[in-house]
Amino acid sequence: MNNTKNIKVAVLSPEFYNYGAMLIAGILKDAGYNVTLKKGFNGDINADIVFLSLHSTIHLLKYREAIQNIRGFKVVGGPVSKAPELVLKYLPVDAVVIGEAENTVLKVVETLSLNGSTESIHEKLQRVNGLAFLKGDRVVKTGPAEKPSMERPLPFIPAEISHENIRGANVYIETHRGCPGSCGFCQVPCFFGRDVRSRSIEDILTEVKAFLKRGAKRIAVSGGTGSLYGSRKFRNVDEESFIHLLKGISELTGPRNLTIPDIRVDMISDDVLEAVKLYTNGWIYFGIESGSDRMLRHMKKGITVDRVIEAVESARKQGIKIAGSFIVGYPGEGEEDFNATMELADELMLDDYFVSIAEPIPGTLLGKEVLETGEEDDLLIQKDPEYSVKGLSVAEARAFNLMLESYVSRSVPIPMSGKLFNALLDEVKSQGKHIKTVTQMMKCLKNDTKNS
Prior knowledge:
Blueprint: E1 8-13, H1 19-30, E2 34-39, E3 49-53, H2 59-62, H3 64-68, E4 73-77, H4 84-90, E5 95-97, H5 102-113, H6 121-126, E6 131-135, E7 138-141, E8 171-174, E9 176-177, H7 188-192, E10 197-198, H8 201-213, E11 219-222, H9 239-253, E12 258-259, H10 270-279, E13 283-289, H11 293-298, H12 305-317, E14 321-328, H13 335-348, E15 352-357, H14 365-372, H15 394-409, H16 418-451
Parallel strand pairs: 1-2, 1-3, 3-4, 4-5, 8-11, 11-12, 13-14, 14-15
Antiparallel strand pairs: 5-6, 6-7, 9-10
């Protein structure tokens, strides 16, 4: 490596061009480095330093062999970096960026580019805040990096961005970071903090124009709860800023091509809903999670079933299509709680449903709770008598039942065919296998830490 900007840097995301990878590549490119942005592991990766953007814990196993074959100095970032010990245990990489990466990746490249230094790699890395790496068998963590500015260069936008399809959008652009909420299953406050930091609307619109110029058509805004944009306090929505944001983006994309993926049921108003109707594709996505007030309290969701019903009725009055997410198999969920969820799903008659089994994400309260739950109380291990022939656990069976119900109870029912039935069965088995694997990985790390 030399002290010029000719050092080759690659930024790679395994399955799609995620926004984080595009952002990091854009920052490095703006700093003058020779950067390539790549999706997937096909073909050679010719770079001195490779930044890998991984968003799922399962990637640590799924892409282990492919990552092992990559030459160069390998650094992992993305949501998985909240558990650097887990990354370093399962992946053959040189370092992990902990949390927000913008400042750290620049320092990593700058430090490793120095020519003529007599320092070892470990000595160099020790001087970079926001990193974790192995020194022998020991995980070394440097000091915390400063939070990056929300003003930054344009992302590195690939020429084929128009071919991306991430839940109907070509890209999810970031409008803000942080969430003051306490949802036990959510990584946003763990990763970005509880303070809301919003980008300027001018920067966002400049970025949207750049994506459109490169061929993107369908834009989704992201940042956790969409209506938190411009806010400083939880549930104190800055309606004027949020509505101004939607209107500004919509004037560039057209309403049909703008999506707002996620809004909390307790952070809407008639004005916000009217803006969603006027300036977006007319869909709203509520995180409902459960029909049991007891479970909503346990999840620390901060809402009630009555509030869910009110929000759905308000959106429906505006003529907005409504999708809702539900989580089943959460630790402590009883049969009565699940039945209440089934009843609520049936009562709401939403336009679309998303059902998932509770997945422990490192750093979240749910992740800690799952690690403390014994097998005798683990709903993903307990077998369900009704579905014993199909080999489903209680959590898998509940997800399957709710999925089946969602096709019957939605606003426009969808007939249940044998093909759809089997697809849903495969889906819950896939979710169950994924979560069991992640849980086992986390438990193995916990045991290693305990025995070290």
